């Protein structure tokens, strides 16, 4: 939903009041100029009446300005919160594949910088509306004093607008380009923290990253932004020049052809002087409009790139009879090898109460296959069947709810979100003890006391979360890779058989060949192809 549509549909009354009060404030300010001009030539008897009018208009300007500013600020924060939640929900409803393509940097930039730009625009709106109304009121008063002067003013405004538009268009181009470059900057900023270990261990790498990569991008953004704002300044200066040229032509040229009285001439002078600040303020505030326009374009573009998945409202089943992959394929680009990797075609079947090991070398496609089995990737060829029914796009979200997964690059939330179960804390504490984490972590009302743990301990905490989810299908991606030998034994010889005994289907991606024989069945991948499968006992004395 665009920002304008949101305002019109949900805040039309507030927006209308804010605009009207801003215009009233601006016109009242222009009225003060007219009263000042009248007072300059008024008699002693009329000064009292003019003074009361001046006081009333001053109070009106004060009240309407404060009211319009307050309303626009509330509108700005409301629009920011609504757009932020709309973007967050769009991210939450998008497919995992689209999220991977989109990347976090662009979304973070939209959720912070672009939305703040919109708030700045709303904060400046009262001034834009009031100053525009002041200028309109002053022009109206000019027309009242002399229609010839008003006509000349309109011609001058037209000439000034053409030059302003040219500079403004180029400035907007540079501003839009700089915003795209900042997406790369956000990505590099994340790498500065995520890759801190690697940078500290390699001085030349750190120097190259900071002095070349980051510095180059920072300088590129600086250059683009500077060009944009210099052009905005040039546009504003051009507007001021045209205005002063207009004043000079009126005072020193036109008045020679159209003689006017001293009262009218003083009116010109007062109006011209009073209009300088509103015009300069209006021109200097125009970049906020362009910035907000670019921000809205970026928000809408990101929303367009993250279409929501079609989902069914039905609840997932607590169990399943079979999950079958028929000739499924998936293709993706591997940056390191600079090639398109093809997984499949794969034919597999899973049933409850079965422990399956997925084995194979690094880069063979095991994690990709696991993501496809779990419904995070949609097969580009073939199909997945749940209980004999094809899993289409609308049913994929329901299908995913059958899985509890701990990936090798898992993310650990600091609370048991979405789990409102009786005795949740009690069950979690029992698992903390079984996983030897009770001396590190406590849990109250579903919230962990800390997640600042070693990688192995964090994986155990992720395993605890998966256990509590109690899904019919469990997938573990190299879970034991960061565990000490004691916990490897517990994981392979006790935890996995316990899940199988509860009727869970379990898929384990592993390189621990000493435990391969414990599987009911193993599946081996090699460069995206299913090359071997059989019973786990056959691998008792074989290293794969």
What does it look like?
The protein has 14 helices and twelve strands. It is an alpha/beta fold and 544 residues long. Helix 14 links the parallel strand 9 and strand 10.
- Tally of structural domains: 2
The CATH architecture category of the largest domain equals: Up-down Bundle
Count the helices. How many?
Answer: 14
Q: Roughly what fraction of the amino acids lie in strands?
A: 5-15%
Mean pLDDT: 81
Radius of gyration: 34 Å
Instruction: Tell me the series of helices and strands, N- to C-terminal.
Output: HHHHHHHHHEEEHEEHEHEEHEHEEE
Structure described in brief:
This protein has 14 helices and twelve strands.
Features:
Rossmann fold; ABC transporter transmembrane region fold; six-stranded mixed beta sheet; 2 domains; 544 residues
Task: Set down the secondary structure blueprint.
Layout (H helix, E strand, L loop, with lengths): L2 H8 L1 H29 L3 H50 L2 H7 L1 H42 L1 H48 L1 H5 L2 H55 L4 H44 L17 E12 L4 E12 L4 E6 L5 H8 L7 E6 L2 E2 L2 H8 L2 E4 L17 H11 L8 E2 L2 E2 L6 H15 L3 E5 L7 H17 L3 E5 L11 E6 L2 E6 L10
Parallel strand pairs: 3-10, 3-11, 6-9, 9-10
Antiparallel strand pairs: 1-2, 1-4, 4-5, 7-8, 11-12
């Amino acid at each position: 939903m665009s920002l304008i549509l949101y305002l019109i549909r949900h805040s039309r009354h507030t927006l209308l009041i804010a605009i009207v009060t801003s215009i009233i404030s601006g016109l009242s300010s222009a009225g003060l100029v007219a009263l000042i001009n009248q007072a300059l030539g008024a008699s002693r008897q009329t000064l009292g009446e003019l003074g009361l009018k001046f006081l009333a208009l001053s109070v009106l300007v004060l009240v309407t300005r404060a009211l319009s500013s307050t309303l626009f600020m509330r509108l700005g924060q409301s629009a920011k919160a609504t757009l932020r939640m709309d973007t967050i929900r769009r991210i939450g409803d998008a497919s995992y594949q689209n999220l991977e393509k989109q990347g976090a940097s662009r979304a973070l930039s939209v959720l912070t910088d672009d939305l703040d730009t919109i708030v700045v625009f709303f904060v400046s709106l009262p001034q834009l509306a009031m100053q525009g109304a002041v200028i309109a009121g002053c022009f109206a008063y000019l027309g009242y004093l002399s229609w010839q002067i008003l006509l000349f003013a309109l011609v001058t405004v037209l000439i000034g607008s053409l030059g302003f538009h040219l500079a403004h268009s180029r400035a907007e181009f540079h501003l839009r380009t700089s915003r795209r470059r900042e997406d790369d900057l956000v990505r590099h900023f994340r790498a500065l923290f995520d890759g801190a270990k690697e940078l500290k261990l390699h001085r030349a790498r750190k120097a190259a990253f900071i002095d070349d990569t980051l510095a180059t991008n920072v300088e590129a953004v600086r250059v683009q932004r500077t060009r944009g704002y210099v052009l905005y300044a040039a546009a504003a200066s051009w507007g001021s020049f045209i205005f002063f040229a207009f004043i000079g032509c009126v005072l020193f040229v036109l008045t020679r052809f159209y003689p006017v009285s001293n009262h009218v001439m003083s009116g010109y002078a007062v109006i011209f002087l009073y209009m300088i600040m509103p015009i300069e303020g209006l021109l200097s505030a125009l970049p906020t409009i362009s910035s907000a326009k670019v921000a809205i374009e970026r928000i809408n573009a990101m929303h367009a790139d993250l279409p929501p998945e079609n989902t069914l409202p039905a609840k997932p089943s607590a169990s399943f009879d079979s999950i079958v992959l028929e000739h499924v394929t998936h293709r993706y680009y591997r940056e390191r090898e600079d090639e398109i990797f093809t997984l499949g075609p794969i034919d597999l079947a899973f049933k409850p109460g079965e422990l399956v090991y997925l084995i194979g070398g690094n880069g063979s496609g095991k994690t990709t296959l696991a993501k496809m089995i779990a419904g995070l990737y949609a097969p580009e060829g073939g199909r997945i069947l749940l209980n004999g029914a094809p899993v289409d796009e609308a049913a994929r979200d329901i299908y995913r709810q059958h899985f509890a997964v701990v990936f090798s690059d898992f993310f650990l939330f600091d609370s048991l979100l979405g789990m409102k179960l009786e005795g949740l804390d009690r069950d979690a504490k029992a698992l903390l003890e079984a996983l030897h984490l009770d001396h590190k972590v406590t849990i109250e009302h579903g919230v962990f006391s800390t997640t600042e743990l070693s990688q192995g301990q964090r994986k155990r905490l992720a395993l605890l979360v998966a256990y509590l989810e109690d899904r019919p299908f469990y997938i573990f991606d190299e879970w034991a890779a960061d565990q000490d030998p004691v916990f490897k034994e517990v994981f392979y010889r006790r935890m996995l058989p316990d899940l199988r005994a509860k009727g869970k289907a379990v898929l384990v991606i592993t390189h621990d060949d000493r435990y391969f024989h414990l599987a009911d069945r193993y599946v081996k991948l090699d460069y995206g192809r299913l090359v071997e499968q059989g019973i786990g006992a056959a691998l008792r004395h074989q290293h794969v």
